[in-house]
Amino acid sequence: MNLDQYLPVLLFILVGIGVGIVPLALGYILGPNRPDPAKNSPYECGFEAFEDARMKFDVRYYLVAILFILFDLEIAFLFPWALTLHEVGMTGFIAVVIFLTVLVVGFAYEWKKGALDWE
C-alpha cells in the first residue's frame, strides 16, 4: 500500500485540528482569568433573572421559526437552478415554475391560517 497518496489527507486533517485547537489552547493559557461575582452572575438583557429559565414559550414562536427555516431552505434550492438556467432548458424552467407555484401556495395557506401572526 502506497502511503504517499494519504499524506495530503493526513496533513489536511492535522492542519484542521491545529487550527481548531491551537487558538483555544492559546486563549486558555494566555488569557486573563479574574472572575468576580458580576462575571459569574447570569445575564439576561441587563436585568437580574426574575423567572425560571425553563419558562414556556408560545408555540407560535416555534411555528414561525420552523416556517422561516422551511421557506428559507426552499429558496436556497433556486440558486443552483439560477446558475444552470441555460443548461436545463425549458424542462428545467417548467420544473422551477411548478416548484415556485407550490411554494407560493404553501406560503399563502400559512398566511391565511394566521401562522405568521404574533398576536
What does this structure look like?
- Helices cover 68% and strands 0% of the residues.
- It has 119 residues and is mostly helical.
- It has one domain: NADH:ubiquinone/plastoquinone oxidoreductase, chain 3 (Methane Monooxygenase Hydroxylase, Chain G, domain 1, Up-down Bundle), CATH 1.20.58.
- The N and C termini lie far apart (66 Å).
Give the helices and strands, then pairings.
Layout: H1 7-30, H2 37-40, H3 59-76, H4 78-83, H5 85-113
Based on the model shown, name its key terms.
0% strand, 5 helices, Methane Monooxygenase Hydroxylase, Chain G, domain 1, 119 residues, mainly alpha
Summarize the structure.
The chain has 119 residues and is mainly α.
Q: What would you call the structural class?
A: mainly alpha
- Number of helices in the DSSP assignment: 5
For the record, the CATH architecture stands as Up-down Bundle
CATH superfamily: NADH:ubiquinone/plastoquinone oxidoreductase, chain 3
Q: What is the mean predicted local confidence, pLDDT?
A: 83
What global shape is seen? flat
Order of helices and strands: HHHHH
Just give the CATH class: Mainly Alpha
User: Strand count, sense and closure of the main sheet?
Assistant: none
Number of structurally distinct domains: 1
Distance linking N and C termini: 66 Å
The whole-angstrom Rg is 25 Å
Beta fraction: under 5%
